[in-house]
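**Tokenised fold:**
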Amino acid sequence: MSMPAPRTMLLALALPLAACGSSTTPATQTTDAATAADTAAPTDTGSTTATDTGTPLDTGTVTPADAGGPTDAGPVDEFGNPPVVVPSCDALAAGTVNGFTVDSIDRQFILTLPRGATAPSGHWPVVFNWHGLGDTAANMNGLLAGAVNNASMPFILVTPESTHLLPTTSPIGIEWDNIRTRQDSRDARFFDAVLQCLDSRWGVDRDRVYTVGFSAGAIMSDLLGVLRGSQIAAVVSFSGGYFSDPMNPPTLGPLSTYPQWPALAPSARYSQLVVYGGTADMFSLAIAAAHFNQFAANDIPYLNTARHDVVACGHGGGHTIPTGVQATQIVEFLAAHPRTVTTSPWASALPADYPSYCSFHAQAM
């Protein structure tokens, strides 16, 4: 399922984008907000409880796999100074976090903790979960919140609320700082700050830091692979695209010079799950359209050439998160691909619960 992006937001997008090219009649707008099927609520032991309550997946006694081990902290921002966070990391608690100020910008996110996360000497996987245009953290959180206590890899879930960037804002963006970007991107710095705080509070397994997103949030996830790829173990993108891939910007026609990304660094070696919805998986931008099936067709060989293994799932259902690739399949992929994996264990065969429209694409050797 999907929900329509607000009309005011679509107009705000269309007008400045149209000014970048020749005049034409705006195309019909597709929807862009993700509503995940089979959603469930988090179970946590913190002082607050996130919304969207329901039945959690795979509940039971959970112990982090490497509990008690050292945290491989290392530099949080390998491209500059650590982000300035106000208030202190000690203020973090499960539920909706408000007033988390990073570099003087107030941020909001939903923090979902697995059972036992607040115990001392933790070593926890972390998953960032980015929403699409016109969506909210509360809605996107339902995709993975019920899976934080899964038996194979319990994890801390961070679902950010965007700062609602548009082509008319500074910096420009589509919800996120994801169009004309740099190493100190607003949302990359937010990623740094949250990861730093989680590590100081409860301990982070630096070999299991992951990012997941839908549409504009998937583009943000892909961008994190470019900006913070040496820190990320795996990326999951539902209808995303790399604007560092030289094949993608020309597909935007008059807007081909609009995205500006740095190159994908050779140090980034994460695996990626690329999910796209066929020819109907597109988003109109007044004088051009983003065709996510074309982005996927371009990005699979682009990532393979850069030595990233890819699982590609072309579900043919349009611009949405398909019922065949949900929390169970996402967590299964993430758990199988820590940062220490150099060749995917799925090279010979995908798990039996993956849909037949999914296939493995090996990195170039």
